[in-house]
Amino acid sequence: IAQVLAAALDSDDIPGDVARRIRDRTGGRPLLVRALLMEARARRRPLTELRHVDHLSGTILSDGITRLLDTAADLRSFLLRTSVADVVTPDLAAQLAGTPDVAAHMEEAETLGLAVWLDDSHERGLRYHPLTAHLLREQAAQRIPRELPDLHARVTRWELAHGSSLAAFRHALLAGDDGLASRVAMLRWND
């Protein structure tokens, strides 16, 4: 990334912390790095300060996600509902999205650069890019707030059966279900 930035900015003097932040905010995806550079030029903001990187990368992704959610109703529903999970497997996606075409939506999320495939020894799944996950969760809180407790409870049950006890406990708390959180703690206190 430092080489791409140096070439694009006609400078060899890109601070290491700035290059690392750009990599973290863009997932190292060349398309997002280029979009960030274009946005910096359009706004006449140098990418030599962390605050500029944070602001510009958030603006680019936020605008893009908002446009995507406003135009693709089926994909919107899938993205908002699955964004509550840390890793989305096909099985969990089907439980959260309630739609039969989760495989196509998962592929589209990866193709759009919103998520990356993880190949676990047990099951293949998607992880949303951290900033993308944050923005999708913000949108979910605005667009489907009444569904979120149920979605978190579903993730809790899935995590208990397939995943992490800590993740199950965290999602039970996010579901606002103290009884479920208590059951998770009692069932898995040795994990």
Number of helices: 11
Q: Note the overall shape.
A: elongated
Q: Flag low-confidence runs.
A: none
Work out the strand percent. 5-15%
What is the count of β-strands? 2
The helix/strand class is: mainly alpha
Helix content: 55-70%
What's the order of the H and E elements?
A: HHHHHHHEEHHHH
End-to-end Cα distance, whole Å, is 39 Å
Strand order of the largest sheet: 1-2
Q: What does the largest sheet look like?
A: 2 strands, antiparallel
Would you kindly provide a brief summary of this structure?
With 191 residues, the protein is mainly α. 70% of the residues lie in helices and 5% in strands.
Describe the model.
- The chain is mainly alpha-helical and 191 residues long.
- The protein is built from eleven helices and two strands; from the N terminus they run αααααααββαααα.
- It has helices at residues 2-9, 16-26, 30-43, 50-71, 73-82, 90-97, 102-111, 130-143, 148-162, 165-174, 178-188; strands spanning 115-119, 124-128.
- A two-stranded antiparallel ribbon has the order 1-2.
- A hairpin with a 4-residue loop joins β1 and β2.
- α3 packs across α4 and α9 (148-162) runs antiparallel to α10.
- The longest helix is centred in the N-terminal third of the chain and has 22 residues, at 50-71.
- It is elongated and about 55 Å long.
- The model has no long low-confidence stretch (mean pLDDT 84).
